[in-house]
Amino acid sequence: MRIAEFLYKPSFSEAEKASNAYVMSLVALMAGLPLPIMNLVATLIFFLANKRERFFVRWHCTQALLSQLLVLPFNSFAFWWTVSILMHTRVPDNNYVAYMITIIAINIVEFSATIYAAIKTRNRTHVEWYFVGPLTHLICKPDTNE
Questions:
Q1: Phi and psi (nearest 5°) for 126?
Q2: CA-based Rg of the chain, rounded to a whole angstrom?
Q3: Which label site among 12, 84, 115, 122 has the fewest CB atoms less than 10 Å from its CB?
Q4: At what angle do helices 12-31 and 37-49 cross, to 10 degrees?
Q5: Using CA atoms in the order 34, 18, 109, 97, what is the torsion angle rounded to 10 degrees?
Q6: How far is CA 80 from CA 37, 54, 76, in A?
Q7: What is the pTM of this model?
Q8: Cβ(23)–Cβ(119) under 8 Å?
């Protein structure tokens, strides 16, 4: 992660909304733990509800959404592979164990980064994720009056 500066200092209410974009995915994780799509749906709903906010809020809502889009395919594959094992159509093998260890590691990193971003953003500090931040800049542009 990289800490950067915005041209303006966001207000406390903007910082709270931006932080809530990250918190939303964590709440959805707790509510719909086995279903990987729940994080994406919750973050998408929050993104759509805040897409007309000031740039700081929009930017962090977009980054949170893109981070969920990034991990969704990996988590979905792990979910359905596990379901197929539970339904006795496949047997667990070394590939499954290795994939699950990798997925758990990816999710721990994403979970930690989300908590860090939520805390820093709530303190009005702009945080960019290494992989998602540049893409967010391409998608989310400031208004002409910001």
A1: -80, 125
A2: 17
A3: 12
A4: 160
A5: 20
A6: 12, 39, 6
A7: 0.87
A8: no
pLDDT at residue 15 tops 80: yes
Average pLDDT over residues 9-30: 88
**φ, ψ at 141 (rounded to 5°):** -110, 145
Name the residue among 70, 73, 72, 66 with its Cα closest to residue 47. Answer: 66
DSSP state of 62: H
> Which residue has 């979905």 as its token pair?
76
Asked if 58 and 140 count as a contact pair (C-beta separation under 8 A), the reply is: yes
Helices assigned H by DSSP within the chain: 12-31, 37-49, 55-86, 94-122, 133-139
- Give the chain's mean pLDDT: 89
